Amino acid sequence: MEGLNSLFKNDHAGQQILSILFIIYIIMGYQMPEPIAGMIDSSIGKIIIVIIAISLFAYANPIVAVLGLYVAYDLISKSTMTTGTAALEKYMPSEEKKMSEFSAYNQFPYTLEQEVVKKMAPINKSGFLEGSASYKPMLENLHDASPVTGSD
Question: pTM of the entire structure?
Fold first, then answer.
């Protein structure tokens, strides 16, 4: 009861007006304008709104501060609804969820092709199968072309 009595003193007229404005905003449920919602929905905007709401606890009556905290929450939630950020957070999958789905799709059983390739004879560094080749590679006329793997 002490909080209400101190709120209605004449030297706290600003807090009375602020609490009346907060109550009107809460009851009327005004739609958030798009330009203001864009400013509030940014990281800096949210930080500023929260700092102002918390500073009310230090400089105003506790009832006004609680109303201010509720109005700050309502401002932030309405601005996210207006800009569409709330819908994106609710319905867009996170990167972790997307990666888990992709890894589920990329799980393949050991195939016959892998087994056959594993059983094939190993190839040495020159590109031939181990052992000696029965032929000798021959180059055609290059027509003054430079080698592909040569240095520039």
Answer: 0.57
